[in-house]
Design a protein that fits this description.
Elements (H helix, E strand, L loop, with lengths): L1 E4 L2 H9 L8 E4 L8 E4 L1 H4 L9 H7 L4 E3 L3 H18 L3 E5 L2 E4 L4 H5 L2 H16 L3 E5 L3 H8 L7 E3 L4 H6 L12 H9 L5 H6 L2 H8 L1 H10 L18 E12 L2 H22 L1 E12 L4 E12 L2 H15 L6 E9 L2 E2 L19 H17 L16
Helix pairs in contact: 4-6, 11-12, 13-14
Length: 393
């Protein structure tokens, strides 16, 4: 089963403020600022507003939209309540992000009477306890379940058997398949692959020649051959997080120096993740003031990543949301948790669908190429342009 909460961030804001009910709500950067939309309520989506769109464009499309800043702590708190509910229905739950999860419901339908009764009872429990709606998909594999949950939204329920792949999933656009972002979709379109059915019928060897192992994996998933298990917390890697921190020789309030340090730390963390074969979803920034007061702030993404640039992008957002540039700091740290095997990264799709942060195949290739250069010529053989600002202490 795949559970996808409907317009989660926006729905929580509407629930917290009843005056927003029925109004177009956009969660993300203000409409007059540079930034992107994180989540749009369904009232906003009728204007063509979607996640990853620039906030300025969203404001143009719907001048009356209410723009609200992201509240990660609140969203994470409610997500913990959701997880408790999920665990009442299955012993094996894999959280993908704050607003979606996979459940292994093998045999659970017999306990509840049927798969449909199980799904409807779960939906009712979420609505009664939290006042939220979700869309559910039940299918033989995780990717099919993910696709099924997207067929009817919001508040949908789709149950697919293996034989339903051809009739229900094959006509869907290839972009609907989890793991195929804009870059991959464009490459597929150029070869005449426009639907999931087109991808399923395409020769696997040719897909591999075109897109490497990733292309063959996508072809097998389209055919319903994917067998990735649901990973509960007990199945997760033994290493809980990967992180690095740096104590400064002198307390600093220099924004260039502090951001260069974040850039450097993100490089160290991402390099170690790739070396150990992990990707992760939760990015944590540790900040220590000159008076030794220490705080941590974190953000959970809708995708797994091991990309230096993605980790730095979000770590910078977390840092900027907290730091007052008059406060001198003595330490910064970055860690990534919510670790999964690196193979999962191919099946994750960045929530922003935006070239500036998307973990697409070209970005992965850049990181891998840098790794190869460093493996051969040493860690300092190639550095990011930002790194020259960092002290060599």
């Amino acid at each position: 089963m795949h559970i996808d909460m409907d317009a989660y961030f926006a729905a929580l804001e509407q629930k917290a403020n009843p005056k927003l009910a029925g109004r177009p709500v956009v969660v993300g950067s203000p409409g007059d600022k540079r930034g992107v939309v994180s989540t749009a309520s369904y009232e906003s989506r009728v204007f063509g507003i979607h996640s990853g769109m620039s906030s300025r464009e969203a404001k143009v499309r719907c001048p009356d939209a209410v723009f609200i800043g992201v509240d990660p702590d609140h969203y994470t708190s409610v997500s913990a309540e959701l997880l408790k509910i999920f665990n009442e229905f299955s012993p094996r739950v894999e959280s993908v992000s704050v607003d979606e999860a996979f459940l292994d419901v093998t045999g659970c339908g017999e306990v509840f009477g049927s798969e449909e009764k199980l799904a409807r009872e779960l939906k009712d429990k979420i609505h009664n306890a939290l006042g939220l709606t979700c869309s559910l998909g039940i299918a033989p594999t995780k990717i099919m379940a993910k696709l099924a949950s997207s067929v009817f939204k919001p508040d949908g329920l789709t149950i697919l058997k293996h034989d339903d792949v051809v009739t229900v999933l094959y006509p869907l656009p290839v972009e609907k398949m989890w793991g195929i972002g804009p870059v991959a979709a464009e490459a597929l379109h150029r070869t005449g692959i426009n639907t999931i059915g087109d991808l399923a019928r395409f020769d696997l060897k040719q897909l591999r020649r075109m897109m490497g192992k990733y292309g063959e994996v996508m072809g097998r998933i389209a055919r319903g051959d994917e067998q990735t298990p649901v990973l509960s917390p007990d199945d997760q890697p033994d290493e809980k997080s990967i992180g690095h921190e740096r104590t400064f020789a002198h307390d600093s309030a220099d924004p260039d120096y502090l951001h260069a340090t974040l850039f450097y730390l993100a490089d160290l963390v991402s390099r170690r993740m790739r070396r150990n074969g992990f990707v992760g979803r939760t990015i944590t920034v540790r900040i220590r003031h000159a008076d030794f007061t220490t705080v941590t702030r974190r953000m959970t993404l809708n995708h797994s990543t091991d990309s230096h640039s993605v980790i730095y992008h979000y770590a910078s957002q977390i840092f900027d949301a907290y730091w007052n540039n008059r406060i001198r700091l003595r330490l910064l740290g970055i860690s990534v948790s919510g670790l999964d095997p690196a193979s999962y990264c191919q099946l994750q799709q960045d929530m922003f669908h935006d070239s500036s942060v998307s973990h697409d195949r070209s970005r992965t290739s850049v990181d891998e190429t840098i790794d190869q250069i460093r493996d051969r010529f040493g860690e300092h053989a190639i550095q990011g342009a930002f790194s020259h600002l960092r002290s060599t202490e």
